[in-house]
Predict the structure.
Amino acid sequence: MRPPSRCPFPAAAGAISASSLPPPTSLGHAFAALTSGQRLSGIRLRLDHSGTTTTYSRSRLAAAWSCFWGYPVPALAGATFVWCGLTGWGPAAIAVGALVLTGSLIFLRNLAGFVITATAIIGAAALTLLAPAAVVGHVAVIFGLALLVAAVRDLLKLTHVHLRRRDRLSTSDAYLLYRATSVPSGIWIALFTLLVAGAWLVALQPISVILLQGN
């Protein structure tokens, strides 16, 4: 068992930082890399739902920034989809998601990545244009919950590596962040957990309101 992402840090200026991870996490690493001034070389997605994001950075802190967001981004995105789906903004959330995926096309570097992303874009566009708003809202909620559940699953896998599979520490983002910053891996796992838990709380707020109204 291994966690879904790897973010090897550069040993010298200009080295490559690559991450093997599922598509939502790939986009999270990619966006964080761009916001920290790194050069995003490309994203490769595979049909088994894994992928690789490659960036170039002259700063270990910048690489740490992009590596950190691999685990929280799926949960944060999931909470956003759930909240939007339950508050009437489901079509807008799906449309924005399609636009983000469209923008990511320029960074894709393999055929499978184009096929996966193009299929998702077409599906999102068709859903937004053809389905009733209520249906789109339900889809947004389901997709958001799936991302939130996946975020918890990935955190459990990460924790398992640190507790039971320490021979696989090289696959752990928390361990690689420790190597880059000297901050203990446990602190990084706690930060991941805090953000994922916060995303769940945000998602559960509109759900609890609906349940209370039903009573």
About this structure: The longest strand covers residues 39-45.
